[in-house]
Each structure stands twice: as structure tokens, then as C-alpha cells.
């Protein structure tokens, strides 16, 4: 009974699996991925249980614009993600962060708001969000299939 | 011929290397004097530290840890500071707009050891845990500075009240 050929085949399979996992990691981290969004805060633009395609290139290159829909780590819980629209870039004047009436978005931060103003926990509650928390920019909706659409109009 | 084998090796090695650096850790040079005397005690010779990404994969940091994080003022810059307080703690600040700050949920308070020469939470306030990138575990270069970095808090910077 010789194990040699099996050892060779086993390590080849492990090698392929490892390689695929690493390539997948790199794509998800640096190119883009699919995201399932739940919650009412972006209605009517996005509905709960929509699957979106987000790209991770423009946030890294600092080419985000006012009006982009982005996904980010939640400022109050790093294990959760939020999906909101950028309504203020650094230097913009925004209103509605308790307790102040209006404020200027500081350097390195953005102001996020959900399209569903009445039902959205966003910068109006937790203040300006550091750009370092932004993960990706929403490009289009891919599910449900009959609602597939580009989401780049502002 | 040579190109093809070079290309193949790159295609093979780059994703594995990048995944390793992102998931396990990497070595980085420390710039600046904000963490003196622990890091960069002589401004001439810069310390190189091993930053562990693995240790912060679930955002469990302890008071006294030295961590690297994305600067809240500039998302392209990484800064290295010590965690002084966690969510629920109350800190007495040095030069912040409020004398006492209760660290909100999901945030932490970071400070550089070299008081007076550091841009830290005393300037930009509590830092969201999501900005934490890695934990500095060891100084790996130069060889005479080899040491393990302890998680200890300077006595005078302990929070005045700890979360229960």
C-alpha cells in the first residue's frame, strides 16, 4: 500500500483550494462584491432583501461624490454594515446632528443619510462618518431580477 | 518563454501574498515620535514593528494595546497609538473640547505615549472600532530593539471610570 500518489494528488487539490480562496479574497477586498441589503432606510431607491453589486475601487482612490450610495462599517458597531447615500463631502454644510443645528463636515469624513428620511439611522444620529469606514460604492441592483437597474443617478 | 513563467509565478504568488498580509500580519516602519519612548526613542533610527491583523479580526482590543488605525482626519494615512479606554469608560482628556468624555458604544479612546507631541483622541475624539487595522505585537528591527510590546497603561492616563 503506497500513499505517495495520494499525497501528491491531495496536496495539489489543497493547493488549488488555497489559491482559489486567496484570489477570491483579493477580488472581494479590492475589486467588488455582491451585497445583500436589509432594512427600510434606503426606500424607495432600494428595498429590503435586494442584492447589490458594489465596487471597492473608487473608495480607495478617494473618488467618491456627493449622491453616491455606499456601504460602510457601522460607526457604532464594526461588525455590522450600513448602506446609505453620501449627502455631504468635507467642507459641506449639513444640518441635523443633535445637539447642534447645523455643522460643517470635517476633513476626512462624509455625511450619510438614508433616502427614507423618516426611517433611517444615519449621520443625523451618529454624526459625520470617517471615510476610513467606507467599504464600497453601490453600482447596480442584481436581484430581484425584474428590478435589475443601475443605481448611479443622483 | 521567460515572461510566461514570470507571469505565472506572479499570478500564483500575488493573491497568496496579499491574502497573507491582509489576514495574518505584516511588518511596517513606524514614523514620528508620538509613541516615544516605547517606539522610535531616537528619532534617527526608526523602529519596524510586526502588525498583527489576526489579533483584531473580531475587534477585541484591550486597554493598553498598541494598535494601528486609519486616521480619522485622513483615510490615506495610518497612525499608531495606544488604546487607553474602551466603550463605556470615562476619560479625563488633555486638551479636548470636553474635560470628561464617556466613550460611546463601538468606539475607543486612543492616545500617543508622548503627551504633547501626538495627534490622537485628545484632538479628534473617540475613534470608531471599525477604523482599527492591526495590533502591534513586536518590534522586529533593529535587532538590538527586539522586544515584545506589552499592553500596559501609563498610570496617569488610566480612565477615571471603567465600564462594568
TrEMBL record, chain A:
**Which coarse location class applies to the principal site listed for this UniProt protein?**
mitochondrion
Q: Which GO terms describe its molecular function?
A: serine-type endopeptidase activity
Q: Which domain of life is it from?
A: Eukaryota
Question: Which GO biological-process labels does this protein carry?
Answer: protein processing involved in protein targeting to mitochondrion; signal peptide processing
Q: Which residues form the Peptidase S26 domain?
A: 16-95, 101-143
Keywords, ordered alphabetically: Hydrolase, Membrane, Mitochondrion, Mitochondrion inner membrane, Protease
Any idea of its EC number? 3.4.21.-
Where does the record place the catalytic residues? 41, 84
A cellular component term from Gene Ontology for this protein is:
mitochondrial inner membrane peptidase complex
InterPro entries, sorted = LexA/Signal_pep-like_sf, Mito_IMP1_subunit, Pept_S26A_signal_pept_1, Peptidase_S26
Task: Tell me where in or outside the cell this protein is found.
Answer: Mitochondrion inner membrane
- Which family does the UniProt entry place this protein in? Belongs to the peptidase S26 family. IMP1 subfamily.
Q: Describe its assembly.
A: Heterodimer of 2 subunits, IMMPL1 and IMMPL2.
Q: Name the NCBIfam families on file.
A: sigpep_I_bact
According to UniProt, the name of this protein is: Mitochondrial inner membrane protease subunit
Gene that encodes it: LOC113397304
Automatic annotation (TrEMBL), chain B:
Does the record bear Protease in its keywords?
yes
Keyword Protease among UniProt keywords: yes
* UniProt subcellular location: Mitochondrion inner membrane
Q: Which Pfam families match?
A: Peptidase_S26 (PF10502)
Task: Kindly list the GO CC terms recorded for this protein.
Answer: mitochondrial inner membrane peptidase complex
Example GO molecular function: serine-type endopeptidase activity
Family, per entry: Belongs to the peptidase S26 family. IMP2 subfamily.
Instruction: Describe the subunit structure.
Output: Heterodimer of 2 subunits, IMMPL1 and IMMPL2.
Can you name this protein? Answer: Mitochondrial inner membrane protease subunit 2
Protein species of origin: Vanessa tameamea (Kamehameha butterfly)
Amino acid at each position: 500500500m503506497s500513499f505517495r500518489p495520494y499525497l501528491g494528488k491531495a496536496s495539489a487539490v489543497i493547493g488549488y483550494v488555497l489559491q482559489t480562496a486567496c484570489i477570491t479574497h483579493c477580488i472581494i477586498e479590492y475589486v467588488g462584491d455582491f451585497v445583500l441589503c436589509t432594512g427600510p432606510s434606503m426606500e424607495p431607491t432600494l428595498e429590503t432583501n435586494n442584492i447589490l453589486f458594489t465596487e471597492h475601487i473608487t473608495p480607495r482612490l478617494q473618488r467618491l461624490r456627493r449622491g453616491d450610495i455606499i456601504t460602510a462599517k457601522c460607526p457604532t458597531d464594526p461588525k455590522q454594515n450600513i448602506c446609505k447615500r453620501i449627502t455631504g463631502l468635507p467642507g459641506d454644510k449639513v444640518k441635523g446632528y443633535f445637539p447642534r443645528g447645523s455643522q460643517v463636515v470635517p476633513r476626512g469624513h462624509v455625511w450619510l443619510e438614508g433616502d427614507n428620511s423618516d426611517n433611517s439611522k444615519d449621520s443625523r444620529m451618529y454624526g459625520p462618518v470617517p471615510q476610513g469606514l467606507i467599504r464600497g460604492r453601490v453600482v447596480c441592483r442584481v436581484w430581484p431580477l425584474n428590478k435589475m437597474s443601475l443605481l448611479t443617478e443622483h | 518563454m521567460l515572461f510566461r513563467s514570470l507571469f505565472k509565478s506572479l499570478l500564483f504568488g500575488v493573491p497568496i501574498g496579499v491574502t497573507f498580509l491582509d489576514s495574518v500580519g505584516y511588518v511596517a516602519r513606524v514614523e514620528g515620535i508620538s509613541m516615544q519612548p516605547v517606539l522610535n526613542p531616537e528619532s534617527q533610527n526608526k523602529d519596524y514593528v510586526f502588525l498583527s491583523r489576526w489579533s483584531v479580526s473580531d475587534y477585541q482590543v484591550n486597554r493598553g494595546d498598541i494598535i494601528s488605525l486609519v486616521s480619522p482626519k485622513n483615510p490615506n494615512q495610518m497612525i499608531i497609538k495606544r488604546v487607553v479606554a474602551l466603550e463605556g469608560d470615562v476619560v479625563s482628556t488633555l486638551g479636548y473640547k470636553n474635560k470628561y468624555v464617556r466613550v460611546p458604544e463601538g468606539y475607543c479612546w486612543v492616545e500617543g505615549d508622548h503627551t504633547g507631541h501626538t495627534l490622537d483622541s485628545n484632538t479628534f475624539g473617540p475613534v470608531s472600532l471599525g477604523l482599527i487595522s492591526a495590533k502591534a505585537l513586536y518590534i522586529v528591527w533593529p535587532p538590538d530593539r527586539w522586544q515584545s510590546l506589552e499592553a500596559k497603561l501609563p498610570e496617569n492616563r488610566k480612565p477615571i471610570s471603567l465600564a462594568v
